[in-house]
User: Fold ABC transporter substrate-binding protein from Actinomadura violacea.
Amino acid sequence: MTRPRLAAAAAVLAGSCTLAACGGGGGSATAAAPSLTTSVPAPSKDVGTLTWNLPPGEPPTLDPAQSAIESVSTPLANMCEGLFGFGPNYERRPALATSVDHPDDLTYVIHLREGVKFWDGKPVTPDDVVYSVKRILDPKLGSSWIGWAERLRSIEPTGAHEVTIKLRQPDVLVPNFFATPAFDVVEKAFAESAGKSFGTAGHGVMCTGPYKLAGWTQGQNITLTRNDAWWNTQVKPKVKNLRFTFITDPSAQTAALDSGDVDGQFSVPRAAHVRLKDKGNLLFGQSLSPTFLSVLNQKGALSDPATRQAVQALIDYKGIIKSVYQGAAQPLRALVPPAAWGYGKDVYQQAYNALPQPAQDLEKAKQLVAGSAKAKQKIVLAYTTAIDEESRTATAIADAASQAGMHIQLKPLTAEQYGAMFASPQARAGVDLFLSSGYLDFPEPLTYYQFFTTGNFYNFAGYSNKEYDTAIRTAIATPDPAARARLVTKAQGIMAHDLVNIPIATQYVNVYYKAGLTGLVPRQNYLYVPWATELGGK
Assistant:
């Protein structure tokens, strides 16, 4: 499932500014791209308590079914486990399952690891696995992970340590989800007893992972403690206790990291980079995250292709990357970033190279506007004020539009309003363009492109192209990687031509931790793997 970042840095820009004037605290409009970290020394010393901040704020729950936002998934990745996990390159690794058989296009037979126990000492059974999956599929729970099961026929225990999944139609995406919270296993008896209180501060959760919930003082912190009975004896976590804080203000985050009151966090505010880079470990890595404009209203000004082309031409891609992201991003030619090409890379690269390099061309934008009555109409651009980079990007786009003779009216959204945009047609009413960032759960471009097929829940604008639909639906049933890549890139080209969305950039994932720590490499999959097991003292 594609995950929107529902909240991040809570800075709000007041008024209008140019890119040069809006560089984040100490950042330069000519900031150089940071080097990417692919390895660091392993830890050698134990750590008693590690304090880690959650920049989106306090999680509303610790229920794996609701782990579609970073405040939930960041701590939960250390607590609950699925059938498989992700390795450094998103290769699937055995976890609560040791292997999976795929005897035909519609069947997956999962072989469960024997001897695994929940934190309370009770054994994990096939009934727990099936209950956990079916629980997420209950529409009343409102889990976004339900999306993986569009072609599911059944999931049932078929042996003492075996579960079998049957599909109605082939779906190459399904095995990837075995390593995501869609298949996180919780204890059936505990969850049923907790009812609606499952995952709350008052009741907690019951999982199998390397850390277990020790306490949750609402409004202050969440504490996890090491599960010394974890089944994975090959990994010995160095950190005994994890204490999560909920500082959302970027300035306060910077001060807490600088002073050492907080030992680390993901998604460090851009304004803090200069201040922290020589203080401890500020590391960057490739991400599966695109930032882009979605066309929400196909009946207004944007119904004219010239209007969409003008918007694409007026964006200062280089300026945004240098000033807003301080070089920690790359421009995008297509919606799915190159880091998310998990197969058929030669096919994807060739198709990507054939797309135009994004570049600002104000003269082209002016000419398009001059020849289009629609392009002169007001365009409402919605964005969230909870993400500093997106506030600045939206402002820059509106400023450039005015230079091209267009009128883009900004509509700032709170984090709550931003989240509603993904679920409520009423929240999207009156909005023409929507600026957002998200991330793919694993490197499979289909996970994004399928959302633009006719009738898809996330196809907010109602885009419909039969040739696009056919390419995507055929790709979902195509196991051969090269053949699938050719189908996906065909759909990608159609999307680029129709300008259903306008890609802007893919930003690097970043992490900071203090100088005395080591072991953690910044990767997008920190949302789904027990990242704290990699950390420790030097």
